[in-house]
Amino acid sequence: MVKFILFSGKRKSGKDYVADQFYNSVKNSKIEIVRLSAPLKKAFAAENGLDYQRLLTSGSYKEKFREKMVKWGEDKRNENPFYFCDLALSPHNTNTGMLLEIYTNPMTHNCITV
Predict the structure, then answer these.
(1) Distance from C-alpha of 85 to C-alpha of 106, rounded to nearest angstrom
(2) Are 73 and 25 in contact (CB under 8 A)?
(3) Which domains, and CATH codes, for the chain?
(4) What is the 3 state secondary structure string of the chain?
(5) Are 104 and 16 in contact (CB under 8 A)?
(6) Confidence band (pLDDT; 50, 70, 90) for 71?
């Protein structure tokens, strides 16, 4: 049975940092971090000819495109509220033998609601 830890919070609040710290402290190959914003940035980069790896950083490159990326993401979610969640979770829909999956910012991307 797979268990989940969900980290949700505002932009730059440390979700990824805390997930990484937890992951590194446990050191178990059956734990995986699933970053739900990564598929959003990958699709946005592909559609706009941008550097996906640089969009994953917290640097000025990502900030330069943030407004356009947010608008693009809202448009995609208006077309299909689960678009990014489906992208993020599709590799994880099989029984991978994972004991724990750590999700960062699932609520922002409509993967869960409270």
Answers:
(1) 8
(2) no
(3) 3-104 (3.40.50.300)
(4) CCEEEEECCCCCCCHHHHHHHHHHHHCCCCEEEEECHHHHHHHHHHHHCCCHHHHCCCCHHHHHHHHHHHHHHHHHHHHCCCHHHHHHHHHHCCCCCCCEEEEECCCCCCCCCC
(5) yes
(6) very high
Q: Whole-prediction pTM value?
A: 0.66
Q: What is the pLDDT of residue 114?
A: 40
User: Considering only CA atoms, which of 36, 44, 51 is closest in space to residue 86?
Assistant: 36
Give the chain's end-to-end CA distance (angstroms, integer). 22
Distance CA 106, CA 26 (A): 22
The share of the chain scoring above pLDDT 70, in percent, equals: 76
Q: What CA–CA distance (Å, rounded) separates 5 from 17?
A: 14
